[in-house]
Amino acid sequence: MRLQDDLACLKGLGPKSAEKFHKLEIRTVEDLLCYYPFRYDDFKSRQVADLMDGEKAVVLGTVVTPATVQYYGFKRNRLSFKIKQAEAVVNVHFFNQPYWQDKIALGQEVAIFGKWDSKKASLTGIKVLAQLADDLQPVYHLTKGLSQASLVKAIKTVIDSGYLQLLEENLPRYLLEKYRLVDRQSAVLAMHFPTDLAAYQQALRRLKFEEFFYFQLQLQSLKASNQKETAGTPIVYDEQKLAERLSALPFALTQAQRRSLTEILTDMASGRHMNRLLQGDVGSGKTVIASLAMYASHTAGYQSALMVPTEILADQHYRSLKELFPDLTVVLLTSGMKTADKRAALTGIADGSVNMIVGTHALIQEAVSYHRLGLVITDEQHRFGVKQRRLFREKGENPDVLMMTATPIPRTLAITAFGEMDVSIIDQLPAGRKPIITRWVKHEQLEKVLDWLNQEVAKSAQIYIISPLIEESEALDLKNAEALYQDLQEFFGTRARVALMHGRMKSEEKDQVMQAFKAHEIDILVSTTVIEVGVNVPNASIMVIMDADRFGLSQLHQLRGRVGRGSKQSYAILVANPKTDSGKERMRIMCETTDGFVLAEADLKMRGSGEIFGTRQSGIPEFKVADMVEDYPILEEARKVASQILAQADWQASPDYQMLGQYLKQEQAFD
Ligand code: ADP
Ligand code: MG
């Protein structure tokens, strides 16, 4: 029995179901053990007086009438009884679940999870809960064909078969003692089956520390090995040519853009190795600066590469670079490309006839060999891990590195998160931009919104409509988007050309839709959040976000940044009936400001106020349980400890650190 055992070897789990787990990146028993819930439903009971119509909740009460089952039609039935909660009498109905009758006895206290109907003062039961105590129910991300129940069952099987005992402690004992962290096995167990809130919180604290600690170890050992080779090649660019390009731009750079460009060029020209973060709100004009840096690199006789997280973005940047530099050879490299095109691109990259390369992860794959790679730029770099960044650097002759991000990160956090990186900030939007007008409307007002959209389409406006985000499953996301798309098609009929885009589409299909939208062959684009990052359609001036309260502030801000890119007055319409105070607050803040830094700060404050079970919002690198912003104190502690350990010359020899040394070696072997 090993933790690396394939899932398919588990009892009751054949290759067919194992395949479904693979879709969630769960292959081994260990993967499954470390696949944590993303949220816990708090089954704390509620007072019916506080419930909103249609809300799902647990209601605790005493049974005051016997339960009766009424049969009607074929196999249909209704189980009914009354419970009393304080002074309120509640009618409870279960449809087609007669088996709950056994659990209902007169005078007994019961906990029922159901949907509240305030008009009828009745509860439509979903289930009778076994426990009356507060109950945390884990909720996992799923994929098609895999239910919460079967996932939980698989985890139970793994634990019952004794695999948990194989999980070795991977933190030195003295750290566990110093920070009073629970051991690894208990932590993993409590993530899946928390006995109570306190146990869960302890587990979480330990796992967050572990995650940050290993992240910091990796980052800092990487930094140490980089420092040995900080001497970069001076990129002697042609100032004259660059100045010509600058004056050929259809606009003048903002002061903040000029400052950032100078900082970047100075780094590049120096013999020092550039490692810089370019931070600026959506639409602040980072891409232009990056393009100019790429051009400078070309004039010095070096290739440059731009890596982005999605194929749509790669294509967009590719087109805009070609447009900006028609005299240069720019190629696109993505894994979705046709083999022949890819081969041609690879040949050109290797023999140096290609000047600039734009692509996705394909850029760091084995087969790519660069000619003289002088500059590497990553867009929305928080989507790339430390390892990937290193791989990229190792491709060239220690190229200069520029990372761009639209996520406003406080400077202190950036330093801890990214190590010793220089930061340039574009804190100014190009002149003449009209601020986006944001309005929050309730679902009841949707029809008015649609009528208004109809008028705007007639005036040749283009519109994004973002379908609600369902964290549990991509399949549900899709279903929602499709339903919305159909409704809208029905509403607009021939008055507007409506199209749909979602994450399940092939990248070429997405590209086609996006290009058609850019070319104004589509008026209304219904989409899931796949358009979130970077997509640029200047004529699109309206964005409607359905169930906007499901999104975090940073994500709403990123989404909203897709409009307001042209000269037209732009609008963002948030459609939401938030159930929580924080949801309402988020809607209000979005209407008040369009400043990314103000929003980031508000986000920080709101989440600091103990929203333990909320959804996670856009972070920097992807962590399983930890959150760079929310858990900053833990991150800072982990950073200190990691640097103390690495500062000891012979740390790898110490028995305390055996696991750590092994881990770092393993990571390097994987590269
Ligand atoms: P970001 O990458 O920061 O989101 P972009 O570089 O895509 O922003 O710029 C957004 C839009 O603004 C683009 O259409 C770009 O051509 C334009 N733009 C960039 N800089 C300026 C400027 N200084 N003045 C006017 N328009 C600009
Ligand atoms: Mg951009």
Automatic annotation (TrEMBL):
Keywords: ATP-binding, DNA damage, DNA recombination, DNA repair, DNA-binding, Helicase, Hydrolase, Isomerase, Nucleotide-binding. Plays a critical role in recombination and DNA repair. Helps process Holliday junction intermediates to mature products by catalyzing branch migration. Has replication fork regression activity, unwinds stalled or blocked replication forks to make a HJ that can be resolved. Has a DNA unwinding activity characteristic of a DNA helicase with 3'-5' polarity. It comes from Streptococcus cuniculipharyngis. One of its GO terms (molecular function) is ATP hydrolysis activity. Belongs to the helicase family. RecG subfamily. Residues 267-426 form the Helicase ATP-binding domain. One of its GO terms (biological process) is DNA recombination. This is ATP-dependent DNA helicase RecG. Pfam families: DEAD, Helicase_C, RecG_dom3_C, RecG_wedge. The keyword Iron does not apply. PANTHER family: ATP-DEPENDENT DNA HELICASE HOMOLOG RECG, CHLOROPLASTIC (PTHR47964:SF1). It catalyses: Couples ATP hydrolysis with the unwinding of duplex DNA by translocating in the 3'-5' direction; ATP + H2O = ADP + phosphate + H(+). Its EC number is 5.6.2.4. The keyword ATP-binding applies. The gene is recG. Residues 445-610 form the Helicase C-terminal domain. InterPro entries: ATP-dep_DNA_helicase_RecG (IPR004609), DEAD/DEAH_box_helicase_dom (IPR011545), Helicase_ATP-bd (IPR014001), Helicase_C-like (IPR001650), NA-bd_OB-fold (IPR012340), P-loop_NTPase (IPR027417), RecG/Mfd (IPR047112), RecG_dom3_C (IPR045562).
